[in-house]
Fold:
Amino acid sequence: MLDQYKNNVSLIFDELGKKLTDGKGLDYIGEEWELINMNADRYLDKINTMYAIQDLQNAYQEAINNSSNNVKAQEKLNALMK
Structure:
């Protein structure tokens, strides 16, 4: 009796999962969700990297601008920036 009850509950959840996921199943949807999150993390890593590079470039530009009287310092900073 208990086994039959467990089987019926399992079948109900399987059917519910198929209906909620357009027949693909909850396992498939879970894998898709993981892939979406992994791609979002990669995107954010790229954005953060680009931001850090831009921030560093701005710091070099500011240092170059602040050393307007020293051409050698400007050349060295410009070489470092490149």
